[in-house]
């Protein structure tokens, strides 16, 4: 294991794992006669540096420089090179044949020259601004704000390895050797943020290690990671693109402040001296969510904290206030308002997940998808857990994951039984208890018995024209996303 520098620039071993993925995936065998067809994961990125520097005047102070980011400082970057055309579609550079690139939008090359794709060895360093014409270079391994740390990379690498052990080695859901033709079996997607991209790269590496054939073989498997443009991103609530959602979120933020600020006053004496004299408040400066973020990031890397933040009662109160501020809309008292909030905040994402499950259930042998991973943020995971009504009220740890698995019932002869009777509707959920180390609740979705679970999958972030239609179901009692047709109306206040 590579060594990483500890706070203060001292080099040492990576800190003990705190709050990330557990030692196993908590998987238990299904009832007899069921065959696993598909697994879908929703994952939070790994440990990172705080997104802003806070608690700098605390006792002990939060370090200004986080020296936990050695891995990404030296890397290969894809570049273009102008090379002499050999005439056979390839170019020779430094002893390697490179594929030529043709683009109708690139001009200005002299005759006999072409573009070729290559890799350049790059080293990136953190620089600190200061007054005057010069700047201050950082130490090797210094982190940028919000950057995935070496510990975060390790967490997601280990998660991918455990997924391989389960779904490849133990269950055989994915073949041990992958070829180009197997690409439709796997789907990987993340938000367009460096820490989620890097987290997913680590997970994919852990999952596919040893799976590929020779890299230059014609049928070599190359993992593909999908990323969306910001206006089309649905892995977290998007209030900036939906005024109605923004209005609802602002209301619940004010509600959280009114409810929790009086309770937080009892922490003033202990917290204020470490927070530039400012009291901890939901709508304070810094906001309470920022304090919790810094504390959780420090805990994940073994950074000493001021004594008040080592008190579970203090952190529990602060965390409950922030959870209410961010996610109370998912459990609003008014059922119509709760339904609307869930649709606007996460309905599009939940619907896309459900459509994948539904497609596999409808044609298990024709649909190729066996494993999908959606890697996002804390808001992604909490929104998902709220939408299926199994959120435990705790902020998800770095690297936490939720899995959903689809099974097919088979007869003794190995063929699907004919027209099974639909089970009676139930509100029970097959949810296992939380496993150690903060690994998020593991949910095995019962698609055919719980319609409420997919109530939020009925519309996208675009507002549905009122009145909202009732849940459509198939003959087996499973919600049919194909029957939902969101309107083209923009998401405005009248939704």
What does this structure look like?
The N and C termini lie far apart (53 Å). This protein has a five-stranded mixed beta sheet with strand order 11-10-12-3-13, sandwiched between helices. Helix 1 packs parallel to helix 2, helix 3 runs antiparallel to helix 6 and helix 7 crosses helix 8. The N terminus and C terminus are likely disordered. The protein is globular. By secondary structure, the chain is an alpha+beta fold. It contains eight helices and 15 strands. The chain has three domains: 292 residues, Rossmann fold, CATH 3.40.50; 67 residues, no CATH class; 89 residues, no CATH class.
Notable characteristics:
single chain, 495 residues, alpha+beta, 3 domains, 4-stranded antiparallel beta sheet, 8 helices, 26% helix, disordered N terminus, disordered C terminus
Q: What share of the residues does DSSP label as strand, in percent?
A: 15-25%
Radius of gyration: 25 Å
CATH topology group of the largest domain: Rossmann fold
Low-confidence segments: 1-23, 412-495
The CATH architecture of the largest domain comes to: 3-Layer(aba) Sandwich
- How many structural domains in the coordinates? 3
Outline, from the CA principal axes? globular
What is the tally of beta strands?
A: 15
Q: Terminal Cα separation, in Å? A: 53 Å
Assigned CATH class of the largest domain: Alpha Beta
């Amino acid at each position: 294991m590579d060594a990483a520098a500890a706070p203060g620039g001292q080099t040492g071993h990576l800190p003990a794992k705190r709050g990330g993925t557990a030692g196993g995936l908590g998987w238990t065998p299904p009832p007899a006669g069921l065959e696993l067809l598909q697994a879908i994961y929703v994952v939070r990125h790994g440990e990172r540096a705080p997104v802003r520097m806070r608690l700098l005047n605390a006792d002990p102070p939060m370090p200004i420089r986080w020296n936990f980011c050695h891995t990404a400082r030296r890397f290969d970057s894809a570049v273009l090179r102008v090379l002499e055309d050999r005439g056979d579609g390839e170019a020779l550079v430094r002893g390697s044949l490179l594929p030529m690139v043709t683009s109708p939008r690139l001009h200005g090359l002299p005759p006999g020259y072409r573009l070729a794709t290559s890799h350049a060895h790059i080293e990136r360093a953190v620089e600190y601004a200061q007054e005057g014409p010069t700047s201050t270079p950082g130490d090797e391994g210094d982190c940028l704000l919000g950057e995935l740390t070496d510990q975060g990379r390790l967490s997601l690498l280990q998660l991918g390895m455990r997924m391989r052990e389960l779904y490849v080695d133990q269950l055989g859901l994915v073949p041990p050797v992958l070829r180009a033709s197997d690409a439709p079996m796997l789907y990987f997607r993340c938000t367009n943020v460096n820490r989620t991209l890097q987290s997913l790269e680590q997970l994919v590496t852990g999952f596919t290690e040893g799976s590929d054939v020779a890299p230059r073989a014609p049928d070599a498997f190359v993992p593909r990671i999908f990323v969306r443009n910001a206006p089309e991103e649905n892995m977290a609530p998007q209030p900036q693109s939906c005024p109605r959602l923004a209005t609802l979120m602002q209301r619940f933020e004010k509600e959280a402040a009114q409810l929790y600020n009086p309770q937080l006053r009892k922490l003033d004496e202990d917290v204020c001296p470490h927070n530039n004299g400012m009291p901890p408040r939901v709508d304070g400066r810094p906001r309470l969510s920022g304090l919790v973020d810094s504390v959780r990031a420090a805990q994940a890397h073994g950074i000493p904290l001021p004594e008040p933040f080592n008190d579970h009662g203090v952190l529990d109160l602060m965390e409950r206030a922030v959870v209410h501020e961010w996610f109370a809309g998912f459990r609003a008292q008014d059922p119509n308002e709760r339904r609307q909030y869930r649709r606007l905040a996460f309905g599009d994402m939940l619907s896309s997940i459900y459509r994948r499950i539904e497609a596999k259930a409808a044609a298990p042998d024709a649909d190729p998808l066996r494993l999908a991973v959606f890697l996002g943020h804390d808001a992604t995971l909490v929104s998902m857990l709220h939408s299926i009504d199994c959120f435990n009220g705790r902020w998800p740890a770095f690297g936490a994951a939720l899995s959903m698995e689809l099974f097919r019932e088979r007869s003794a002869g190995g063929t699907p039984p004919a027209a099974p009777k639909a089970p009676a509707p139930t509100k029970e959920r097959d949810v296992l208890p939380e496993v150690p180390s903060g690994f998020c609740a593991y949910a095995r979705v019962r698609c055919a018995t719980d319609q409420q679970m997919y109530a939020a999958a009925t519309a996208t972030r675009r507002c549905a024209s009122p009145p909202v239609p009732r849940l459509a179901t198939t003959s087996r009692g499973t919600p049919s996303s194909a029957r939902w047709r969101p309107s083209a109306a923009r998401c405005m206040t009248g939704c």
